[in-house]
Each structure stands twice: as C-alpha cells, then as structure tokens.
Design brief:
The protein has 389 residues and is an alpha+beta fold. It is built from eleven helices and eight strands. The strands form two sheets. The protein has a four-stranded mixed β-sheet, covered by helices on one side.
Length: 389
Amino acid sequence: MSTARTALETEEHQALRAAVAALGKRYGRDYMTTVIREGKHTDELWAEAAKLGYLGVNLPEEYGGGGGGMAELSIVLEELGAAGSPLLMMIVSPAICGTVIARFGTEEQKRAWLPGLADGSLTMAFGITEPDAGSNSHRITTTARRDDDDWVLTGRKVFVSGVDIADATLIVGRTEDARSGKLKPCLFIVPREAPGFGRNQIDMELHAPEKQFELVLDDVRLPADALVGDEDAGLLQLFAGLNPERIMTAAFGIGMGRFALGRAVEYARTRQVWKDPIGAHQAIAHPLATAHIDLELSRLMMQKAARLYDEGDDIGAGEAANMAKYAAGEACVKAVDQAVHTLGGNGLTREYGLASLITASRVARIAPVSREMILNYVSHQSLGLPKSY
C-alpha cells in the first residue's frame, strides 16, 4: 500500500518510522499469536525496542530518554501495530506514567523512575477506572487520607492493564481539600508488593499478552513522596496523562487497521475465483480504498494532536486527541471488518491472523473512553451545546 507521508514528517520521523517498521517485521503477527497462545509476555520485543531507544523516545534526555514527544512515541506504536505486534503497555508506561512523572514529579521521582521507564527495565501501570466510575472520573471513590506524614489509600480499580508485570501502578485517588472539604483527584505511585494492594485477573474474551486486573486497595500505606506533583493541581496533572493516552490509543488503532488492511489487500491482489483477482472488482476494491482513506485521515488528526501536545497546548491537544482517538477507533473497526469480509472463510482462520482482531479492534472504540463520551466532549467543548448530564 502507498503511504505518502513525506510532506508532513521530518526526515528524522521518516527514519524512525522505517526503523521501527523493520523491527516490527522481524517479529510480526506470528510472534504475537505465539506469545498469546503460550500465555507469555512480549519480553523479547519489549527488550529490543527498549535497547534501540524506542520505548523512551518521548522522555527527557537527561533521564535516559530520547528527548522527543508524543509525535515520536506514536510513530513507534503505530508501526509496531502495522507489523502485527503492538505493545499495549507503551500506552501506559512511557506515555501516561512517564509523561506525568516527567512533567510533575519531584527530582527524586524522576531519577527513580524515568531512566528505567526509558530503557524498559521498569514498567508502570495506570489505574483510574472504577466499578461505579467508568467515564465519570468525578465519581471516583478511591480516597487518600493523611496519617501523620503518610498517605493511606482505600478503594477499588478495574480494567488495569499489566499490573502483574508492572513494578508499580500510578493510582488516581481523591484527597480532601482542607479549605473546601471537597474531594480532588491526586496521583500516587503504588509499588506492586505494597501491603494491602491486591489484584485479581479479570477473565477476558480479549486475547492479548497484557492481562486485565481488578485492584483492591485495603488501607495501603504510602510515604509522603508517593504523591506525584502538587496536591492542589490534580486535574491538570491527570489530564496531562490522559491526552497522551488518547493519542497513543489512536496510534494503536491505526496500526491495527493498517495490519488488517495490508493482509486484505495482499489477498485481494492474488485471490482468483473467476478470470481476474477479486481485488479487480469494485465491490471488493472500493471498501478497502475507503478503509485506507479513513486510516490516513485518522493519522492526520493524531499528528495534529501530538504536535499540539508536544508544543504545550494542553487545551488544543485535548480536543484533537479526543477526535483522533474517535476517528482511529472507527477506522480500525471498519478496516478489520472489511479485511475479514474480503478473505471470507479464510478471514476466520488462525493462519491469516485476522479473526482475533475482531474483538481486539473494539478496544480502540471502548477504551480509554467510549466514543459516545467523546461525542459529548466535542458537542460541549467544541460546539458549545448544553450538557444533558
């Protein structure tokens, strides 16, 4: 497939894209399906991507990172996904947690975490969703109270990726504002083996190397320096992590859609039932062309969001990141669906590696926020329409 990007991307970005694509090709979909089937993790790919500097490409150079931003990190995830071997924990560890610590962490927190997040030796998960507070973060009930110099966290989280392989989890809790008495969001680093920090794996139909967990925080006692950033700037710090999450989810969806579309195009070029390959028929060709257009448009919005974020425009990036995530989720689902349909019965075989993407592609529509909540955001924030809730 033609992928004309030279007009928008620097030579450095084009070189990064080509290098990551070569890495992804060495692993590919067969590697990912083998890892999933054997119940393992993507340790080999994670380690090699880290060694080549790809995992920490967005983190500050003074802490071992590449000194880039979300523009570079999204390229890495998209290209790995286009090769059939995306690393979901890239969304969480370097993009959300690494960004929050780099922007708001203390010097001690930066030195303790950023070099390890950059070289892949440390991994961090992110816990925000709760059983009764999905898209409504204002209903979060995980609370943090002061006890002398310590913090004590109590609550539950669900759908937290990779807790079993993460050295710590960045937990979104709420503390009481001494002046107003209201609860405000704050971020805490909770080590995996902290007493009272329990986890239960959620039985998912989604087959992925990264497992999903429910977390129970039963009076988890943390030192004062577990708090990331200023106690009074919780929402600012929280959204500093959520915008990268949306940008990277868009990259995840675009990569998956490109992989599926690539398989379908290759099949349509060579599959011959009558006189010509099936790709010569417009009933096959046009839906694939439409899927390609939608993926390219999604990337444009993702690039806009990444650039705005990297330039420090959090408000502009918020709108663009939500739009990019929405567009990529829709494009991904449609590309996967059309790819499976193009292959017919072969689209449901393990040999072609597309059937499992039917479930996986829904992730970009559902997480980290549903498409309906993004439409709410755009209708309220962009169009100025009144809220219904």
